[in-house]
Amino acid sequence: MTSCDDLSHVRLEGEVLRIAISTANNGTSLDFDGVAQGTAALRGLIAGTVPARSVLLVGEGPNFCAGGNVRAFAQAENRGEYLREIAVSLHEFVRVLAATEVPVVAAVHGWAAGAGMSLVCASDISIGGPSTKLRPAYPSIGYTPDGGMSWSLPRIVGIAKARELLLTDAVIGGDEAVRLGVLSRLVGDDEIQDEALRVARTLAAGPTSSYAGIKRLLAQSGQATLSEQLDAETDSISAAAETPAGREGVDAFVEKRRADFAGL
């Protein structure tokens, strides 16, 4: 894949790969055209054929994503098989999103429920507003989590709080979501999209190899002992020193100029 031009839910904005995971259709439920196109584009990014240096997840309706299309669940001839099929599709998207070494930013306006909340938890940085609301939403229809929420949420808020939020199907306002670490920060409701794009563009102009190393270290830290993590940090920082970005960053500091990480 070398272009996003023929994809309706995915486009390149400079070096930012923008993926629409919902639209105004079907009540801003998770859009599986967006999921499939996003998966293809992320694979291209990983393979080096999509020239993006950050990823931006957005919703194109009144919400970031209101969760799964429950009416479609009800209409399925075999609900179990239908849910298995769409979960497999969503989970492939989450897997490639996690494998992406560039930063992932989410613009979280309105509701992020069910799979929408899972994708917020899967992002590196998430920007919300005072009206942003998150909700697991699974118990309300008698379901269990998907999209990695049972893995990511405990790592963000702790196992006890994750248990409470999931079992009580709690509605989490923007301020509380920031306090818990589910959202990174809040801006005005009408600024969410612009600010998330600004953050994504800023990251796209940064030291991509450094970001990749940071994400790898964070990903492995939960399973590593302190000694193992110190060894990993030693290997990572020594490797970073030999990268073009590492050389440019240090040289710029010594020369008292702004580092130029374009293309590095």
TrEMBL record:
Pfam families in the cross-refs: ECH_1
Ranges annotated as spanning the membrane: none
InterPro entries documented for this protein: ClpP/crotonase-like_dom_sf (IPR029045), Enoyl-CoA_hydra/iso (IPR001753), Enoyl-CoA_hydra_C (IPR014748)
SUPFAM superfamilies documented for this protein: ClpP/crotonase
Similarity comment: family membership: Belongs to the enoyl-CoA hydratase/isomerase family.
Name the UniProt record assigns to this protein: Enoyl-CoA hydratase-related protein
